[in-house]
Amino acid sequence: MTESENRAVIHIRQLSKTFKQQCVIDQLSVDFNSDDRIALIGQNGAGKTTLIRCILGQYNYEGVLEVMGMNPRKSRKLILQEIGFVPQTPPPIKLTVRELINFFEKITKTPADEFYKISNDLGLDIKQNFGKPFYKLSGGMKQKLLISFALGRKVKVLLLDEPSANLDPQAREILFSHLKAYAPNTLMILSSHRMDEIKDLVNRVIEMDLGKIVLDNIVTEK
User: Fold this and answer.
1) What CA–CA distance (Å, rounded) separates 186 from 83?
2) Among residues 66, 54, 49, which one has the least CA distance to residue 13?
3) In this structure, are strands 204-209 and 37-41 parallel, antiparallel, or unpaired?
4) Residue 19 φ then ψ, to 5°
5) Which of 151, 40, 136, 143 minimizes the C-alpha distance to 94?
6) What was the pLDDT predicted at 3?
7) What is the tens place of the pLDDT at every residue in 140-177?
8) Which domains are present in the chain?
9) At what angle do helices 97-108 and 112-122 cross, to 10 degrees?
10) Cα separations in angstroms, 153 against 27, 35, 116, 166
C-alpha cells in the first residue's frame, strides 16, 4: 500500500464535544483510513452519533478534526460532496419524493436512475410514491430512500448510523449485499447495535463508551 493510500481520510486528535455541560465526546483521538470498514459500536449515549455529526460538520467542537484534509465546519459543502450518509432518525423533510429525487440528482450530479436501482432492489418503487411528502412515508420507506441516496453514487466516505433500522429482513440482506460490493477504497463507518449483522462486512471494530474509545480491534479474516 502506498503512503497516499494509507493516509487517514478522517484524522481526529483530542476531540471533545459538550452539551449543556455534559461531555459527550471526551478527548478522543483516532484515524480512519480509506480501506477501513468500521463497526462503530457502543450503548446508547456512548457518543457514536455525536461523533458522526461532528464529522458531517453539524456541530462545533474542541480539538482537531480533519476530513479529507479539511475542516468539516469550514469546508462542509466540499466534504459533503464526498460523503454518503444515512441518519439514525430520518429528518422531517416536507419535499415530495419527486422533489427530493430532483434535489439529490442536482446536488450530487448523479442520474436519478442510480437511486431508482438501489431503492427498487430494497423493495421500494419510488415512482409509485412520487407525489407523497417524504415525512409521510413509512419508516421503512424513508430508510430505503435515504439508503438509495447514500449508495447510489460513488463517494470517499460512507457514514451509516443504524442503517438497517426499520428495514424488513429481505431489505436488510440486500442492503448488506450492496455494502459488501461497494468500492473497497471507500471508508465505511457502520454504527450499529447488531454486531452479528455486520460482522462479515467490517475489518475493524471500534467500541465507544462515555465519549471515549474503549476498544479498537482489527478483524482478521477467517
Assistant:
1) 10
2) 66
3) parallel
4) -115, 120
5) 136
6) 46
7) 999 999 999 999 999 999 999 999 989 999 999 999 99
8) 3-218 (3.40.50.300)
9) 130
10) 34, 18, 12, 22
